[in-house]
Amino acid sequence: MPGKVATMRDAVADLVRDGDTVAIEGFTHLIGFAAGHEIIRQRKRDLTLARMTPDLIYDQMIAGGVARKLIFSWLGNPGVGGLNAIRRRIEPAAVGDGTPLEIEEYSHFGMVARYTAGAANLPFMPLRSYFETDLPKANPLIRPIRSPYSDETVYAVPPLNPDVTIIHAQRADANGNTQIWGLLGCQKEAAFAADRAIVVVEELVDEAVIRADPNRTVIPGLIVDAVVVQPYGAHPSYVQGAYDRDNRFYLDWDPISRDEEKTQAWLREWVYDLDGRAAYVDKLGTERIASLRPGSAPSGSVDYGDYR
Amino acid sequence: MPGKVATMRDAVADLVRDGDTVAIEGFTHLIGFAAGHEIIRQRKRDLTLARMTPDLIYDQMIAGGVARKLIFSWLGNPGVGGLNAIRRRIEPAAVGDGTPLEIEEYSHFGMVARYTAGAANLPFMPLRSYFETDLPKANPLIRPIRSPYSDETVYAVPPLNPDVTIIHAQRADANGNTQIWGLLGCQKEAAFAADRAIVVVEELVDEAVIRADPNRTVIPGLIVDAVVVQPYGAHPSYVQGAYDRDNRFYLDWDPISRDEEKTQAWLREWVYDLDGRAAYVDKLGTERIASLRPGSAPSGSVDYGDYR
Amino acid sequence: MSEPFSKSEMMIVAAARELAGQHVCFVGVGLPNIAVNLAKRTVAPDLELVYEAGVFGARPARLPLSIGDPTIVTGATAVVSMFELFAFYLQRGLIDVGFLGAAQIDRFGNLNSTVIGDYAAPKTRLPGSGGACEIAINARNVFVIMRQSTRSFVERIDFRTSPGNLGGAEQAEAIRRAGGWNGRGPSVVVTDLGIWHFDEAGEMRLDFLHPGATLDEVRATIAWEPRISPSLATTPAPTAVELRLVREELDPEGVYTK
Amino acid sequence: MSEPFSKSEMMIVAAARELAGQHVCFVGVGLPNIAVNLAKRTVAPDLELVYEAGVFGARPARLPLSIGDPTIVTGATAVVSMFELFAFYLQRGLIDVGFLGAAQIDRFGNLNSTVIGDYAAPKTRLPGSGGACEIAINARNVFVIMRQSTRSFVERIDFRTSPGNLGGAEQAEAIRRAGGWNGRGPSVVVTDLGIWHFDEAGEMRLDFLHPGATLDEVRATIAWEPRISPSLATTPAPTAVELRLVREELDPEGVYTK
Q: From B68, B93, B246, C189, which residue has the greatest number of CB atoms within 10 Å?
């Protein structure tokens, strides 16, 4: 395969290093579970994990012991409850003599603004948020800034520049030119902000497919270091047009994650004892995969015009 | 017609008021000539015209006497030369006893950042530009700002919130939900920044066409006050997929605009003496219009999935 | 005579009715989502649904399981980046109503969804702000939906995630105006027992008691001595039409309404 | 023995050769556009073309008439908003080479494209910055293409639109580093008479004289006493392959090359 196509094992081994700041972004949509599991499997350590919504994937990664710090804006199992493995590393009653997880907390717009500042190489990003809340006290990196045009004061957040950002997408070409439809979250900003980027896709397509609709391109290959082809790599989250969220998994995770032993047993069964995503998909079974397939809703085509 | 569909005459009469700040945006692509001509025809006065690249349309509007001030970042006839009618209102040797045009000047990124601040309701936008140039001396609204995270100083520009923004697009539905492909310029930012927005489209489409590809929507109807259907309304600029730039016009404008009398004669013939865009297109002739038609280059379709 | 209904159904219906006359609504999952969809089918047919995940004009074909369910994307009017959603829609002042819930609320409608206990060593770590703090600041109106209990309707919240009327209406109004906030603050709190609006002092005032609920219950589930409207009324019970829409169309499996 | 060629053709070919080893190039219209496309077909096959209008990875099927020609969009890799292009590509430091022209240049490569005369009462009003000031600051390297004349190669420019080596290399380097600029400043000036690079002091130094040009011509078209490289060489004439590409593929109508 030409270009930047790599196996997940090689991409994670080469591009994710102990001590890195890692952002796996994707807001409810396109969550990079396959990449997260490979990071657990390779026993990376001392990572700072950044993500707006840590979701199950960071609960699993933190249970797997890869992280020393978490940067986030909403810590929950969406529609279900809390993230129990993470809470065990934050609430003193549960942490006990263990090592607590360091946390650095923002609001959603604060996280988006941090990635945007990082992507735009700005020393800060202003926003109208945080007024009269306790968040700037909890996180001294949220700072007031005065407008040069009036007496008005707003808040600022600093840039977030991950060492590596990992995103999942519907399709890319071998050079990493990546297209996404459906929710876009902050993937573009997180990818441009990063030093290195890994794109994991459902489908590898010919460059001509990308070039036929250049407005659909979210990430240019220019900033991509590796393209990993990994169908169903976002399960149990979803991929618009390809598969639905596997809600049963989100529900099942709650009782598993409430118990440390069950959590570790789950990691053994579904991560450590499997050699990669293909084995995971096999184990999940064709029936369950098939049940997640949506009907069809085509976008229609537009004409860019041939100008010569 | 339901929704916000209006004639160009009514949209301009109702929504563009003497003394307004008006932004007609569209970077080389989708320039709102039909709207600009209607503003000339209705003899609007004392406008502040904002636009990154004033282009021929503002040269014509300023020759038509609608403006007292210009906010811009690049003042030229792209690929051809200068904007002569505007220069006659700026260079003292040509202005003579006439009223000079007030100008407020930025760089491209400065203009984009001004609209972005306006669209995001921010009191300023920081950028890494203007260092060691004479632009902040020429325009005192370009001001240094210190980062709250270091000793670093960058520059800021203030928000630009037009009273009305006018954009041209390939298609919209009757509620003003607007889709654009090809160059996007700063239309989205300029539209969100404005108090009122007029969208002029080549084609009015059913809401279902818009909803089939929601990622393609650039402007939501929420911020649109009027939808004007005006095929070829961007001529002599172009519409991706629909028609090419009429370069002959850009070349022809240079000698016309060098002479004030010829300029006024042109305005009489092509603006004042016509009652609207349909008459302009007729006068242009079917052969010239047909010569601008590109070949076909379809985008292809993607699947959003039907989830129920 | 009306059909029997659950407390959740009453909350949904009460919240939906409050949306009459509103145009653009920031939707959360769960009860708010059902309430907004009910309002669109009853009192506010032109309501536009905005999801913080980046969706404007959503037309969910099923009950969304999360705020990022794929069903809110397919058939929507516009899908945009979260930067754009928060900057150009919310911060620009285009959102009329934002829904919030919380673990704690005080009499002035200030909300805590961050921690119970001390921030650095919490008894319970909650989800945190998400978009709540910016919704509280920049949505024109804030609707709160919460079940009453003395653990959540407290004298003093442990952490202020989302500002309400701060220490009172006068102070809050001055600060909101001076700081250029888009939001006017909380306008209603819909609970399982009644409907609270805010009085001139910026304090919660019980205006409606749901059918079957009592003032004793209200007082027993709130940690301060609540203000009761002198013209306290009973919330009209859900109509047959409202119940049918909720039960047959919006939550046929009863996930949120049982 | 080589074919006859025009001064414009020599400029295009010389600029194209300077692009060897470069990866991402911000393209302007006219000569730079042809030079970049020639480089892509000769010394820099992996060159990615970026247009400030918002295009990455353009593959123009014809010579673009303006920086926003529709032919740069169709078949491109990505088309993005101008905010994104300027913020995430240029300001982020992803652009290796930016091309600039100007009405005036000084010995340190500072450029004026704003006014001739006083800013408030100009003798000649020029187009202004456009993206030039941010390209000069944030493109890693700046290539200048200009025809020599004493009106444009001046002792003192009337307005600094685009910073070059400021008052000299040492000062410029310190300011660029302290201010966090991505750009290292101008690296070459290609004229109709020769190729200039910048010496240790940050001043233009003539390294190549085009075939047929003389040092007398060079001195007669420049307002200061120019530095001439002790190892001054003659620019290799355009090859038959280069000329064929320019004449048959890139500018078949000779718009820019006559």
A: C189
What is the distance in angstroms between the CA of the first residue and the CA of the last residue of chain A?
32
Query: 3-state class of C159 per DSSP?
Result: coil
Least confident of B6-20, D18-32, D152-166, D194-208: D18-32
Backbone angles phi, psi at A172, to 5 degrees: -150, 160
What residues have CB less than 8 Å from C239, skipping those under 6 apart?
Answer: C2, C13
Nearest one of D37, D36, D78, D22 to D54, comparing CA atoms: D78
Where are the alpha helices (H) located in C160-213, listed in sequence order? 169-178
| CB < 8 Å to B213, chain A | 299-300
Residue A288: pLDDT over 50: yes
Across residues B257-271, what is the average pLDDT? Answer: 98
The CA distance from D236 to A66, in Å, is 58
What the block records as the tokens of B39 is 């503003």
Is residue D217 within a helix (H) or strand (E), and if so which, with residue range? helix D215-220
Domains of chain A: 8-123+158-291 (3.40.1080.10)
The conformation of residue D153, written as its DSSP 8-state character, comes to B
Residue identified by tokens 């400030």 is D52
C-beta neighbour count of B36 within 10 angstroms: 27
- C203 labelled catalytic: no
In B, residues 145-164, which contact A (CB 8 Å cutoff)?
145, 147-150, 152, 154, 156, 158
| For residues D121-141, average pLDDT | 97
Q: Where are the alpha helices (DSSP H) in A120-153?
A: 135-138
Q: From the candidates C18, C48, C52, C242, which is the catalytic residue?
A: C52
| The two three-digit tokens of residue D196, written as one number | 């200039």
Cis preceding linkage at A236, omega within 30: yes
Residue-range domain boundaries for chain D: 7-250
**Alpha-carbon distances, residue A242 vs A208, A231, A238, A293, B307 (angstroms):** 21, 10, 8, 6, 11
Whether the predicted interface score ipTM is above 0.85: yes
Question: Does pLDDT of C1 surpass 80?
Answer: no
Tell which residue, B109, B68, B63, B66, has the closest CA to residue B88: B63
Rounded distance between C-alpha atoms, residue D70 and residue A303, angstroms: 12
Percent of residues, chain C, with pLDDT higher than 70: 99
Q: How far is CA B212 from CA A296, A298, D204, in A?
A: 11, 7, 57
Q: Calculate mean pLDDT across residues C133-153.
A: 97
**D7-250 in CATH: which number?**
3.40.1080.10
Q: What gap in Å lies between CA B75 and CA B262, rounded to an integer?
A: 21
Binned at pLDDT 50, 70 and 90, residue B2 comes out as: low
> A226 vs chain B: nearest CA distance in angstroms?
24
Task: Respond yes or no on whether the N-terminal peptide bond of residue C226 is cis (omega within 30° of 0).
Answer: no
d(CA A46, CA A65): 8
